[in-house]
Design brief:
alpha/beta; Metallo-beta-lactamase, Chain A; seven-stranded mixed sheet; 6 helices; globular
Length: 293
């Protein structure tokens, strides 16, 4: 998909770098934070590096205590090309990231988050409205990032929360034609509930290789704000990736739907062969799908 108002981002390369189109990896740091490495790109999602016992501010005077530690410290990150940020919330872009990430690091995110980050001194934000696309190039590979629908809670409540986006990442060789299918198509849900607008995603993208789903069943004052076990299974079935990977499931006290509930729901739905479970610090290794050859 290519839109007239797409934003282009050219990333620097070194002579020693060569895009590996044959395999990639997703390293789970914790919460919604992963390091994705594929086709010469290294990107970081929703950076959250607070530690167990630290509190995060969620707005309106509400805080939540972290239960877990990140799998690595922010100083241990590899060289990051850019950050993909689903929304501006303290458990997705925390004070550690604010203090220690390079303010020149490109960040692809929502317009709301871009404005908040610009006020904090981050100088290369790339805001996307729903269905807008950011085209990124690095050496021998191209990546398109399309902002997808997301809603952080029921309609009335979501109006008081930061706007959230899902993302579709499509990787191509740099010399591919517009008609060529992507080498890899990866969906990131963001902190959304299942609602009608998500139905357009599989209509536009019928072949999705990997999906990262934010679960946890976040509840504040009894209101569900992120997918619980039942909604998570519904989302996996709707989006229909070849492989679904679960993240954002046990890190904060406001996460009320444990992963064990989701596993039971997956088994009941007969989706066991479609779901991969990662612990903090584990990686999922992948190869492009044969159907795109």
């Amino acid at each position: 998909m290519s839109l007239d108002h797409a934003v282009d981002l050219e990333l620097p390369t070194t002579d020693a770098e060569e895009a590996d189109l044959e395999q990639g990896s997703i390293f789970f740091v914790g919460t919604a934070t992963v390091i994705l490495e594929y086709a010469g790109f290294t990107l970081l999602t929703d950076p959250n590096f607070l530690h167990s016992g630290d509190h995060v501010h969620l707005g309106y005077g509400i805080t939540s205590r972290r239960r877990t530690d990140p799998a690595l410290e922010i100083e241990e990150l590899p060289a990051i090309d850019f950050v993909l940020l689903s929304h501006y919330h303290g458990d997705h872009f925390d004070r550690v990231a604010e203090e220690k990430l390079d303010p020149e690091l490109p960040i692809v995110t929502t317009p709301h988050a871009a404005a908040e980050l610009a006020a904090k001194g981050f100088r290369e934000t790339h805001p996307l409205e729903t269905w807008e696309e950011c085209r990124v190039r690095k050496g021998d590979a191209r990546l398109s990032i399309t902002a997808l629908p997301g809603r952080h809670g029921p309609p009335v409540v979501s109006k008081g929360l930061p706007p959230v986006m899902g993302s579709m990442l499509e990787f191509h060789p740099a010399d591919a034609s517009p008609e060529d299918p992507p080498l890899l198509r990866l969906y990131v849900s963001g902190d959304t509930l299942v609602y009608d607008a998500l139905e357009e995603i599989p209509e536009r993208y019928p072949d999705i290789d990997l999906g990262l789903f934010h679960l946890g069943g976040t509840r504040i004052l009894g209101v569900l704000l992120t997918m619980d076990a039942a909604q998570g299974v519904e989302a996996v079935d709707l989006i229909d990736p070849d492989v679904a990977i679960l993240i954002h499931y046990n890190d904060y006290e406001v996460f009320r739907s444990p992963l064990s509930n989701f596993k039971a729901a997956v088994e009941k739905a007969g989706l066991e062969d479609r779901v991969e479970y990662l612990e903090h610090g584990e990686s999922y290794e992948f190869e492009p799908s044969d159907r795109r050859e």
